[in-house]
Amino acid sequence: MRWSQLYVPTLREDPADADAVSHRLLVRGGFVRQLMAGHYSLLPLAVRVRAKIMDIIREEMAAIGAQEFVLPALHPAEIWQRSGRWEVMGEEMFRLKDRKGADLALGMTHEEIFTVLSQELRSYRDLPQMWYQFQTKFRDEARPKSGLLRVREFTMKDSYSFDIEAGGLDRSFDLHKAAYERIFARLGLPAIPVQASSGSMGGSASVEFMSPSNAGEDLVVRCPGCDYAANTEKATSALPAVVDGPGLDAPERFDTPNARTIEELSRQHDVPAERQIKTLVYVVDDQLTLVLVRGDHALVEQKLIDTLAATAVRPATAEEIQAALGASPGSLGAVGVAGLPILTDEALRGRADMSTGANTDGVHLRGVSVERDIAVQQWADLREVTAGEPCPQCSTPLEVVVTIEVGHIFKLGRKYTETLGVTVLGRDGERIVPIMGSYGIGVERALASIVETHHDDKGIIWPVAVAPFEVAVVVLGTSDEKVVEAAEGLYRQLKGERVDVLLDDRDERPGVKFRDVELIGIPYRITVGSRGLADGTVEVTTRATGETQSVPVAEAVEHVHKLLTAVV
Question: pTM for this structure?
Answer without folding.
Answer: 0.89
